[in-house]
Amino acid sequence: MSxxxxxxxxxxxxxxxxxxERVATDIYVGSPQKDGVGRxxxxxxxxxxxxxAQASVPDEKSAHSLHAYFLRGGREGVPIEYRIERxxxxxSFSNRRVVASQExxxxxxxxxxxxxxxFQTPEDGLEHLDSPxxxxxxxxxxxxxxxxxxxxIEKMGDKVSDAQxxxxxxxxxxxxxxxxxxxxxxxxxxxxxxxxWFKTASALPDDPALHRxxxxxxxxxxxxxxxxxxxxxxxxxxxxxxxxxxxxxxxHQEARADDWLLYATDSPWSGGGRGFNRGRIxxxxxxxxxxxxxxxxxxxxxxxxxxQG
Length: 309
Description:
The chain is an alpha+beta fold. The protein has helices spanning 7-17, 42-55, 145-156, 162-169, 208-218, and strands at residues 21-24, 27-30, 62-70, 80-89, 93-103, 109-120, 174-178, 193-200, 240-251, 261-271, 274-283, 288-300.
């Protein structure tokens, strides 16, 4: 019996996760991740909110930017409701506001994310690219991050709980291959720059809106960890406490999320319990297809007395 995951099934699950259901005019519901544990992944909420916004805009207009604020951590296992406000519809541009909420046990709803998205009818315009794609190894020459993750978990042994082990080794629909070292890969301080290739582990349907949603989903990977690199600390090793505070994404070109995309991230600043991070996403032809910025809460974990081991 093979231990190889069914990647087509995993990606099909991702597509279903990012497909929101219309339950009323400008109200959509996103399903929870199957077997999800703990706090909802921020990229999931961003992608589902984008999908809800995209569903309320005519097909001839495409999302070119989104700005999101994380208000509270979402709970796994509970559907998320997305309410749309149609703030503007012009000839070239449209704007949507989305409030993502989860229902509490008493029936009240708690907002967990606010997102604003802007849409444009495609047109020709002046073009330039200031920063070319970094020169890095091709993804075909790199080993999957999951192999590094397995080796690290085995090396840490009993220092990793069963829950941490299960989360770290859970098969993922997004394959990543890193050209250098992310925050969880070593404990040596390094410059706040990282480069990772990513794509879905199998083919996606030919739906540009879905590809944008998957790119939005994946844009929350590796980003906040870039600001941890100069400090030699890691969330995976339990050395940091953190959460995303806001997330901004600009789509420059249409791209397929099932083809390799390079995510080049850097962090120009951290301080005051926060880390600021930027990202550029390129296709294999070197075209900049998206830009990202995020600030997150980042604090060194303080060990409690009697728990120094």
